[in-house]
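Hey, resending since the last one bounced:
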Amino acid sequence: MTERAWGRPHPAVAAVRSAVRAVLGECDPGDLVLVACSGGADSTALADAARFEGARAGVRVGAVVVDHGLQDGSRALAEEVAARLRARGLDPVDVASTWVTAERPDGLEAMARAARYRVLDDAVAHRGARLVLLGHTRDDQAEQVLLGLARGSGARSLAGMPSARGPYRRPLLGVTREQTRAACTAEGLSWWEDPMNEDPAFARVRARRALRDLEADLGPGLAAALARSADRLREDADHLDALADAAVAALGPGPWAVDALEAAPRAVRTRVWRRLVLRAGAPPGQVSARHVEACDRLLTHWRGQGAVHVPGGLRVHRSGGRVSIGRPARVE
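The structure tokens again:
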């Protein structure tokens, strides 16, 4: 039964709107908020809730629809999604095309994600948006944590997706995928199912299926438990990151005394290493746990070994009780 028929919103609609309302509380009247909308149920429910709550708060709500060109007719589909959003009153609504290719499915997914954020960053700058809303749900969060567990990741990865980072907000991390679909149905909203969401070539699809199987074996509530674990781990990871930031600031520019590095607990020190090599010019996203462990062995298992090679052509070297990071001198 629709909201107009019974005088109050469907419980799923109310849940989505409540989540969005909390985020729009950050905004001032007249601010522009953009919704990243793929046309799926999650982002469609998010866009409509933002439209409704934005009108009540005096906040302008628009959208960005990204066409990755990964399926035949994707541009026409993106334009159809944009037209539906405009018909619901969102403004401005932009459609942006970005094409990506990769040899491996998971590589394709990562490249598409990076391209999507570049488009959204450009939209923020071009439109002067205050916030961008992303439609990740509690189920997405649980799948992210499950993938982190499978990869043997640390606390930061197991902490899942943050609810806020820069201009980006994820209002629906406490809302289930079932609720977003129920909200769309209750409001008479159409959505499309991305065939990539059922392609087992992608790790996230396999994680989704594994989560369903685990819930069938262990009982319902596993996704919610994983999401709660992510929240708690994020608090721990945030605290350790703050300690690492303070330690790096205290160390100052290198070379650094071995004793000063060894003074930090390992949980902090591994984060310090990552910050030091990134600050020296290592490409973000390429410094692995293996690189960090090799750097730390210069302190914990020192046997006079040679420099540690890290991404970006950098060398981490210990000599005379001090550690330095740099690039080898070029021989003319």
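The CA atoms of residues 145 and 158 lie 5 Å apart.

Sorry for the duplicate.
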